Amino acid sequence: MTIDQFVQTMLGGLAIGCIYSLIALGISMIIRATDILHFAQGEMLMVGSMVGLSAYWMRDLPFPIVLLFGIIGGGLISTVVELVVYRTLRMQRVALINIMIATIGVSIVLQNVARLVWGSEPLGYPSLFDSKGIVVAGFAVSPQLLWIVILSALIMGTLILFFRYTRLGIAMQAAAQDPDVARLMGINVDRTTTYTFAVAGMMAGAAGVLLGSLFFASFNMGFITGIKAFVAATLGGLGSVAGAMIGGLIFGLIETFSGMLISTAYKDAVGMVVLILILLLMPNGLLTRAGREV
């Protein structure tokens, strides 16, 4: 492997790792707030990707607006699902494991609805980024990969600032850490839970547009990607927001370099091997979850 190949592979791994981090962030946030493993999180990515592509078809919009539509689409669907399905089940005091099973049902339903609306064939994203390589530190790099890393970092940075400096973000942290105490302080825990699903869906929607621009959009694009994001969240430590970011980057690099050194045909299998090794050797992940905290 030449130095140029190493740089390109590293950038590609960081780009796909950032996408995994965005999805894993939503998984970890939902676990923090509700203890639910949200197996439909990958479908929020798919919805965001499809909505962003549909917006582009209608108006030939610039990429930032396409990304915004994807974010809104993912957040809106996630909010509707939480209000209609998950909140209803919680109000009926359904066992947690049954709610998790319901998330699998939501995943299947969303896939089939997407197939009816957008068809079963993969849909190619237009060239939303400049395809001409640019030179950074003496190496030619893909502008698309570079922009994915930059935009993902901006989105994750905005999320961190939101939780740290806004009243709503602080309230969401308090509700996730200790719901009973939060209620005594006047925080509407049901509302903050809905906001958590909305933000998680927005992160997945952004990831969907970025992933679609890198490859293509399809009704089942969220399934395997969601599983990989779950592996990334497990690697970082389920329920840890910082761990989700780190785990996504590490897993993206592992997958990309394994595809380069072994074969791209086996990169999905490598991800599953990583999951099994994590569960065997580091069941708590890199960053152990310490209490309930967004």
Provide the low-confidence segments as ranges: none
Give the C-alpha Rg: 19 Å
Secondary-structure element string: HHHHEEEHHHHEHHH
* Category from helices, strands and their pairing: mainly alpha
| Gross CATH architecture | Orthogonal Bundle
Query: So what's the overall shape?
Result: globular
Strand content: under 5%
Note the total helix count. 11
Task: Fill in the CATH topology.
Answer: ABC transporter involved in vitamin B12 uptake, BtuC
What is the multimeric organization of the chains shown? single chain
- By CATH reckoning, the class would read Mainly Alpha
What level of helicity do the residues show? Answer: over 70%
Strand adjacency order, main sheet: 1-4
Characterise the protein shown here.
It is built from eleven helices and four strands; from the N terminus they run ααααβββααααβααα. It has a single domain (3-281), classed as Orthogonal Bundle (ABC transporter involved in vitamin B12 uptake, BtuC). A two-stranded antiparallel sheet has the order 1-4. It has a two-stranded antiparallel sheet with strand order 2-3. It starts with a helix and ends in a 13-residue tail after the last helix. A hairpin with a 2-residue loop joins β2 (134-136) and β3. The chain is 75% helix and 3% strand. The chain is globular, with a radius of gyration of 19 Å. The chain has 294 residues and is mainly alpha-helical.
